[in-house]
TrEMBL record:
Domain SET: 29-300
PROSITE patterns found in the cross-reference section: SET
InterPro entries per the UniProt record, alphabetical: SET_dom, SET_dom_sf, SETD3_SETD6_MTase, SETD4_SET
Species of the source: Puccinia triticina (isolate 1-1 / race 1 (BBBD))
Official protein name in the record: SET domain-containing protein
Amino acid sequence: MTEGTDRTSKQWSELLDWLESEDASTGEFKVAMHSSTDRGRSLVAIEDIEEATKILSLPRSALLDTKTIPKQFIKNHCSELTSTQALTLFLTVYRLNRRTSKDLEKFEYPFSCYLSTLPADISQIPLVWQLRAVLGSLEEIDPSDLAQLDRLRTALTTTNSFTFYQLMTTTTIKQSNDVLSRFINDWANLLPTLRDCYPDARLGELLWSWLIVNTRCVSFPIGAKNSADNIALAPAFDMANHSPVSKVTAVATPQTLTMYSSTPQVNLNARAEPPPSYQSLAAPCQPRFMKGQEITFSYGPHSNSTLLTEYGFVASEPNPWDSIDVTDEIVALFDHSNPTHITKIELLKNTGYWEDYTIQCNPLESSHRILVALRLLHSSEEKISEWQDHIDGLVDELEGEIEQAVQCCLAELFALLKARSRALVESIARPAIDPSSLGLSAYAIMCLKTLASNEMTAVSSYPSETT
């Protein structure tokens, strides 16, 4: 434990020194990095912090993005790449060069002081489980080998490719596949450059790099036309763990990225720095954070399934954003060979209500999108104009017969979800489950149990039909 603490202190000290060299005012930082066996790395307050107070601020030059990566690297490799792909390639080359360096003490690479603080273990993310299940040891695979990429593509489109899917909710399976699909797409786009310029790279290095970018980037206005490309890696910032209820806020200007203890109480000019007297604008109150308290940050309004598939954990506190994806179940209610249903599907597509159907868990509530789709499903052709009035906000509900059919449909849906979630919870609870045989850790199994249990608890609160 002492060794780990010392290493953490050394990393933090070296990171602060580097940030100072990039003109960051680290003496004003109100946090320090902390390491523990249960929480990993985190940021903790080194003094009491009031509401709307600056916690740390990073200058533009300390952010790692496609504008601060060496221009020659971008020119040689990244002109046709997205920000995610370019940053992934940059980190992959870093890992390759570090692995093949003959003297790590003299090893140099742009942003290496920051990159050395990034976590090495990414094994809790389902994407890692998927790749290992299909391809085996990732450290021995050449990422320019098209045959390996094709094997992964085949697994994505094959039913029951992954044994551990039997322990996942359908929502988690769908989101895991979505992440895998994104990775496959980015890998395919990077493959030619890896083949031609970096033949010694390994798939494990590419996967690590992609997940670092996917899990740790923050939104930042770098001037890209595509909003998805306006991202950056932010040293120290990315050490804050997630909380779905955190009030900590990030404020970006073209020159800085600043973390505040809560939403600033002034309107900041996007072209100017916060005024020097900014902190005095907060009314005296109980400190937002006490000295020694962990500083958490909300990664976004994410369900626990999203947190697991994108970041490799589930929230340790009640998550107000938990939801169940029932898109497949709702879509299956429409008969794609029925002309009337086909017309309704097109109408839902044209009005933006086709697919993306979810049930909110806390409290249990069917999304408006579900109700809109079911009301159209049960409307006769003569009543479609009334349905149009409904989506235009002119009426809240349709006639009683339609609303009754919708409620019956929902009752059947929740009965299905109850049975399915109960069976999943029972399956995971079986003593015969051996995490290692599935390539999973005990923590991974715990996360899957949490997801299954939360879903069962949520759908069980739907009132049963009474006779």
